[in-house]
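User: My instructor asked us to take a sequence, write out its structure as tokens, and then describe one feature of it. I'm not sure where to start. Here is the sequence I was given:
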Amino acid sequence: MPIINREWKRGKKATTKLLQLQNRVRGQLSESGKTAEELARAADADPEDVFHILSHLASNDPSVRMTKGEEPSDDKFFLAAAQPSPGG
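Assistant: Let's start with the prediction itself. The structure tokens for your sequence are:
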């Protein structure tokens, strides 16, 4: 098997694992804030990996919010409360 093909497959496997972890972590979020460590424990994952995933989600997904703590380990991540639709 050519080296490029092997590397591509490794990259695809790593990306798949990262996306699966992101889905597990996102599934643990609620409207009550939790730290990356708390969410990592619930998802059986590395807290640092979870922190980076949560930071990415909070920056790019309007339904995921973050409140800063004194230390990054104290940051809380949560789902934004659902907003009622206009006129409904």
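For the description part of your assignment, you could build on this observation: The domain at 16-79 is CATH 1.10.10.10 (Arc Repressor Mutant, subunit A). Try explaining in your own words what that tells you about the chain.
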